Amino acid sequence: MKSRSRIAFAAIATTAAIGLLAGCSTGSDASSDGKTKIVVAVDAGLEKPAKVAFQNQVKAFEKANPKITVTSREYTWTGTTFAAELAGGTLPDVFTIPFTDGKSLIQQNQIADISGLVSKLPYAEKFNPNVVKNGENADGDIEALPIAAYGQALHYNRDLFTQAGLDPDSPPTTWAEVRADAKRIADKTGKAGYATMTQGNTGGWILTSLAYAMGGRAETGTGAKTKATVDSAAYEKALTLMKDMRWKDDSMGGNFLYDWNAINQAFASGQVGMYVSGGGNYGSLISQNQIDPKSYGETVVPLSGKDAGALGGGTLAAVSAKSTAEQQMAAVKWIDFYYMQKLFTKADAQRDAKTLAASDQPVGAPQVPVFDKATYDKTLEWTKEWINVPLDQMKPYTEQQFDQTIVPEPAKNTQELYGLLDPVVQAVLTDKSADPAKLLSDAQTQIQAKLDSAK
Prior knowledge:
The chain is of the alpha+beta class. The chain has helices at 15-18, 48-64, 79-88, 99-107, 115-118, 129-132, 158-163, 175-189, 202-213, 233-247, 260-268, 282-287, 325-340, 346-358, 373-382, 391-398, 414-430, 436-453; strands at residues 36-43, 68-75, 94-98, 145-157, 219-220, 227-228, 274-278, 296-300, 310-319, 406-408.
């Protein structure tokens, strides 16, 4: 799920349903002056400084590529809207998708095959293999470029920790401590000590994150032999933890219909003490939710049990299947300029950092490297002059993130699986008598039916 990065999901159209739709774009044409025109995605809901920073990037790109004209359209990937835009032909020429959608869109020929153009890029052979595989076709060629990756993190409000008499420099390291701290925050401040996303596929995403951190897995096998495994001890333990925090501790507040955008806003406004989301979420909290940096804290997701790991995912940049050859060339140049060069070359890393910092946008927020860790460490060194995020407040995460096992999201029917788990999470938070074991058993039956019906 995005983090991609970010990734707020609204009652998703299934991968199978997406497979019936034709890949489309805005149908941008060449400009009358002979320039190639492309429409590129820009995150919806950006605050004014972030919009200024983006436009500065566009100007720099057009100066470097005088035969290309770039216009932007607000876009945020959500399941239902993406499916509708794919069907209706309103996607930008360059758009982003979560890792979980990469394989299916490639297999269905619903994004442009830009692998020939990508193969000529100087870093084509330098990607983190665990990251780039999400954008590869069956032959191992890259058709969608990974632009960001994440491992789940526990985000916490330092102010609420202090008000509750907790040490914000010593966040919880076990789920028992998460529960205890959440109750203390709720009792002392009246705010939700811990909250979770529950709708638009995010409920299933976060439940799976907790279950993976407790040693569980959502699926086993591959292809036609894939079997659902959500009816398991780890999933039941994760679901029971949330139920106990809700009904025994009363530490989860009163909103049980959060999606990604809504929980970010609640957290940024000081209404939530802790929640789980992607490790690189700080950038969104700044650019879209205006969080007070002094209130922010981040640590790794607690891991417990054999095979425990932090669920990971990320974001791919893709090109519309309906774009012309000229637009595909221009689109790859834009992806290279806007997303990739800052991750790979000193001059562009510094240019990007300087541009962002000048617009008061975050520089240096933690992330899983798209390339290797050595390259990632170099970018931090190259841009240290402009780093403006509270790194000291992120140390519980940054000092441990590379020691954690990152476990990829379930590979088959991912969004459908998450969507079928949403009502499971909602049920335990809104119905005191809900039975986690029964809910998971029923969900597994539904998920297995989807897996069996998928091509």
